[in-house]
Design brief:
The complex is a heterotrimer of chains A (476), B (95) and C (485). By secondary structure, chain A is an alpha+beta fold. Helix content of chain A is 40%, strand content 20%. In chain A, the strands form 4 sheets. Chain A has a 9-stranded mixed beta sheet. In chain A, strands 6-5-16 form a 3-stranded antiparallel beta sheet, with no helix packed on it. A two-stranded antiparallel sheet of chain A has the order 4-17. The longest helix of chain A has 20 residues. By secondary structure, chain C is of the alpha/beta class. The chains are: A alpha+beta (476), B alpha+beta (95), C alpha/beta (485).
Amino acid sequence: MEYEPVIGLEVHAQLLTSSKIFCACSTAFGAPPNTNTCPVCLGMPGVLPVLNRKVVEFAVKMALATNCRINTYNRFARKNYFYPDLPKGYQISQYALPLAEDGHLIVETAAGKKRIGITRIHMEEDAGKLIHDEHNPYSYVDLNRTGVPLIEIVSEPDIHSAEEAAAYLRALHEILVYLGICDGNMEEGSFRCDANVSLRPKGQEAFGTRTELKNMNSFRNVQRALEYEIKRQEYILEGGGEIVQETRLWDDSQGVTNPMRGKEEAHDYRYFPDPDLVTVHIDETWIEEIRKTLPELPMARRERLQKEYGLPAYDAGVLTSSRALADYYEEAARLCGAPKIAANWVMGDLLKLLNEEGKTFDACPVGAASLARMIRLIEDGTISGKIAKELLQEMYAAGKEPEEIIAERGLVQITDEGALKAVIEEILAANPAQVAQYRAGKEKVFGFFVGQAMKATGGKANPRLLNDLLKRMLAP
Amino acid sequence: MKITQEEVRHVAHLARLEFPEDQIGKFTIQLNDILMYMEMLNALDTKGVEPMTHATVLYNAFRDDEVKPSLGEGESLANAPDPRGQFFRVPRVIE
Amino acid sequence: MELYELTVHELHEKLVSGETTAREVLDAYYRRIEAVEDRVHAYISLMKETAYAQAEEADRSIREGRIGPLTGVPIALKDICCTRGFPTTCASRILENFRPPYDATVVARLRAAGAVFTGKTNMDEFAMGSSTETSYFGVTRNPWDLERIPGGSSGGSAAAVAADECAAAIGSDTGGSIRQPAALCGVVGMKPTYGRVSRFGLVAFASSLDQIGPFTKDVRDCAILMNVIAGHDPRESTSVPVEIPDYRAFLDRSVEGWKIGIPREYFMEGIDPEVRAAVEGAARALEGSGAKLIEVSLPHTKYCVAVYYIIAPAEASSNLARYDGVRYGFRAEDPRDLLEMYKKTRSAGFGAEVKRRIIIGTYVLSSGYYEAYYKKASQVRALIREDFDRVFALCDVILTPTTPTAAFRLGEKLDDPIQMYLSDIFTISANLAGIPGISVPCGFTGEGLPVGVQFLAPHFEEGRLIQIGSALSTLMPREVRRPRL
């Protein structure tokens, strides 16, 4: 029998606010344990939460970017369960009335564009961290992360392959980072994903029994874990077995999913409206104010870049992979007036230089205006493309303007016909054998003369002029 | 019976409480009396009534996104029954 | 007259005029406490050391002419209010040795007004009770009859004021926990409108019902205390950002022409005849001064107790989940694993009534029961609030007995939760609706036990309660009776 996987994803994204969602403690990562903590996030008796306005604004941005309907009135609820990383014994989340619902995302897959529904987006607080002692029966609790703002983005079960799941996650991740509301760092846990997976016979409408996958901390792992889990379920079903509804953890080193070791108990979170927090009211005026601050989203930008600059889809994809890169490219393209050439330089030499140092375009030592000027210098024949490659490296390393380096190092092309003629005459005189070969029809030897001329001019000969002159002077 | 001894045990587990076996019986009877008393609410038709979850009708109490000092050094752990270094220590959590 | 017998405003006058000093006043109170406390047991802990430092500071500021509304006045705090660096137990073993690194907003406001804190008063554990018998630290007795309960949950604060162990006290009221003990101890007690006095630092019992208020010897003192403690607090989301009037402006004003609603559902059978007579006496006295009594109906009154005993435990079950032995307070010894740590800690740390309510609250929120209990109760709560909205369109205030009986005997209802719960039958509605209420003494039973009359007003109309309470005190001068201790 052929099975169809049904996958739903729950993404938790940490929001890039300075302070926590319900108290004024810092959200900075990496502080010494239990130092970014106060009575509120420690869950001490009698203290109360007050909502960070920016959390609402950031969440609304994401809701708008994913085409959600924003609930004019939304509310926080308590999710009750005991765990040492959850100081109050409940997590403040949203339940019956979330911030936003009914959105969707268009995702590009190998099979083309696909629409994936978004069930809801809600705001909530993060929990703390536990460190387990390998040798003694203890765990250690660090509550720095407790109360860091999260949004949870829940997809519809519209995803039918591991590849689609990865594409959806990349798209979400890209938007969050583009909006500047999440740093997207998966290793530090700023972007986390859980998956619900089930299989059903192709053509059947009812869902099969699902498992929940956790502990996948990279796009690659999500894809691998889903691929594994789909195979595992397929194997069981084909053998006539039944899927056990359970939570499974992805084991990266073994490449398998395993059931959680801890006793799985039927969860009964006893959600109810949090009496300590008032209803959040988001009116049209506020929504419009936030909408105005939204940047152009990656997919729209990709399409515009293709149309406006005549770039191939691949180039547009690379150039919009981050907002900083796209902004850089567009500025350079506009200033130099040669968008295709600018694309080649940005995607080629410059990106390579940045990658070597692990830098991004926010921190590029060569400004977009400098790059544009360098391109113009190539275009007007002042320097050769070959020289430009060296020039860019120097601009990058020294942070200097192109004109400055050209002047310092005398890199201006030789475009003086007389000077170049003299050089060629010398070469022809010194290499009579090659001249004879060429004239006898061995055109390959032409490259030899170009090389010699470039060597003699230190690479500064204008290539077109050199070509013309050589052809004329070698003519029998 | 509104609630059985078995349910009392289950709810107690959810609330992370336990009761000596010889007290469960009496306790269940008391809970039943209380839940029976609450039965009177069923006499009321509340269809379409919006539940009152808050005693105020306020909206939008916000704070600005500003960092203020956290508790001073050691203060977070000062009341801890089992502090270890900079951490709260608990019996091992199995995942 | 002894210093400790004076009201806040009388003390204030004597302090300002230099007739006495804050130190002398505090000495007088601690001597009084020493004399009666072993019989009353109003306090869980005394704050002697800091109190003398505060008194010294009060005397200095009086000398320098910096005089706050409560400078040098000894005030007791219910041990549910967090006090920075000083143990705050909520009368529970589970908060053993807990010293909050913060003050409750109400504590900070009192400090800023110059108050001197005598100590932390006894209460029902986590404010769950109507008799102050569920405290981990033993029972408090009613100063009028040591064999009787002082009411609860703020029984220690009520008894401390009645026994002159402080000039005034702070309590909290979730279903009557200020008004009921005030009535049973013969003092004035007010529960302000929900959102009027900050809950920040008030250890939560039921967050949508809890409200802090004062216990005082007279209505004037109530106005003075309210002036200090009321007001918007940005640290509480449900704190209401509205202006606070000067409550003293409502004192000594007539209620002529006022319409006083008498809800027929509050004068039903089962109410003690002597209590009824005293309350009706108060109503007639007000009528005699030109107010008009009108009969009104609050038809959902009979559902109040059931609604309350669903909503309050539901919220409490969640609010009390933080007591897990991880970050502060009591932890059971040598647990085998995490689950055992939770269960042993919470089972040994909480008393029977608290556990009973956590179980009820967990049950009514649990899967399959939420709709039938919590949601249903929240809907009926809306109907109860609508009752008040309707009635307040017809009258200025509502008058009811505060309690159905005078103080009952120790142990009398301890084993019968429903009977205990029904002792709050007249006070619960104000918490459910969020409106303010006050209990003012209005006489005694034949056995010499105090009786209180309760007034209820629309949201944010505490001023009306001060005005009618003050008017009643003029009409029915406070009997010079004092508890014989």
